[in-house]
UniProtKB/TrEMBL annotation:
Lineage: Bacteria, Pseudomonadati, Pseudomonadota, Gammaproteobacteria, Vibrionales
Key words, A-Z: Kinase, Transferase
MF (Gene Ontology): kinase activity
Protein name: N-acetylglucosamine kinase
Domain of life: Bacteria
A Pfam short name: BcrAD_BadFG
SUPFAM superfamilies attached to this UniProt entry: Actin-like ATPase domain
InterPro entries linked: ATPase_BadF, ATPase_NBD, Euk-type_GlcNAc_Kinase
Gene3D superfamilies found in the cross-reference section: 3.30.420.40
Domain ATPase BadF/BadG/BcrA/BcrD type: 6-283
Species name: Vibrio coralliirubri
PANTHER family: N-ACETYL-D-GLUCOSAMINE KINASE
Length: 294
């Protein structure tokens, strides 16, 4: 009987799966929808099974092989204890599941299991420093109350500035005009949209913010300066805890390096492996569960 190991990196926007056999050979890799467990443990489980199913098909495996798969889960929202237990209480077809945060998986992968820190800035944000198996975490308490330096908070701030521009309180720029055009130049449409908007909906504006900042848009530049200051705040906090090697990870953080101060830039190193590989490293190892089941 061949055992398989699965790494899952699940965030607010997507869920990525990678399957290896017990010799480390790659079987398949695939992607599906959101796997942030705070957006629904059932939604996350469906995304995980969907991504694993697609990845398994690449290696001519199917759902009959799930019972031989040890799954390492690095999921956004896993830090919330009640959500962690709700997720792990669900029935599943796998040999085992080990659940920790997306930040934990990213940090294990980035430093190949050695001591080190990461600063994630994707849809959300979180800083984590792993030292001799002990976790030191900054931020990461989810949008909108935390996650500064992430795309969702940046998008929320952008919408606020767009509305101020529409009221004549601040000047309009190509960026505010872009957002208004996105909503058919209808402020009421923005208000209506905001009632049901989730983090990735706000985060969708980050690519155009980077693009227009490079073209000299005043508001876009201000947005990136603020986001860089947020990321720097967390990196400095990690450094005070002892971290002298920090990897920037996620779609925002990876592009913000040149906006950081020289002091902070000197601590930045390139990640060795990604979060999926980090999750693979703890698949089948229950001691890596964030919380222990009774």
């Amino acid at each position: 009987m061949t055992l398989y190991y699965v790494g899952i990196d699940g965030g607010g926007t997507s869920c990525r799966a990678r399957i290896r056999d017990d010799q480390g050979k790659l079987i398949g890799e695939a992607k599906s929808g959101s796997a942030n467990i705070l957006l629904g443990v059932d939604v996350a489980m469906n995304s995980i099974i969907d991504a694993i199913t697609k990845a398994a098909q690449q290696g001519q495996l199917n759902s009959n092989d799930f019972s031989n798969m040890h799954v390492g889960l690095a999921l956004a929202g896993a830090e919330q204890k009640s959500a962690w237990f709700d997720f792990m209480a669900q029935p599943h077809p796998f040999a085992s599941m080990t659940l920790n945060t997306d930040a934990y998986g990213a940090c294990i992968g980035a430093h190949n299991g050695q001591n080190g820190a990461i600063m994630i800035g994707g849809t959300g944000s979180c800083g984590i420093y792993l030292k001799d198996g002990e976790q030191h975490v900054v931020g990461g308490r989810e949008f909108p109350i935390s996650d500064q330096g992430g795309g969702a908070v940046m998008g929320l701030r952008l919408i606020q500035q767009v509305l101020l521009a529409e009221d004549g309180i601040r000047s309009k720029t190509p960026l505010t005009l872009y957002v208004m055009n996105h909503f058919n130049n209808d402020v009421d449409a923005i208000v209506e949209w905001s009632k049901g908007a989730i983090p990735k909906d706000y985060g969708q504006f980050s690519p155009v913010i980077f693009q227009l900042a490079n073209e000299g848009d005043e508001l876009a530049i201000d947005m990136l300066k603020q986001t860089a200051a947020d990321i720097e705040m967390f990196v400095l906090a990690l450094h005070r805890k002892g971290a002298d090697k920090v990897c920037l990870m996620g779609s925002i953080a990876e592009r913000i390096l040149n906006w950081l101060s020289p002091l902070v830039q000197q601590w930045i190193v390139k990640p060795q492996f990604d979060a999926i590989e980090g999750a693979l490293m703890f698949a089948g190892k229950p001691q890596h569960n964030l919380y222990q089941q009774a």
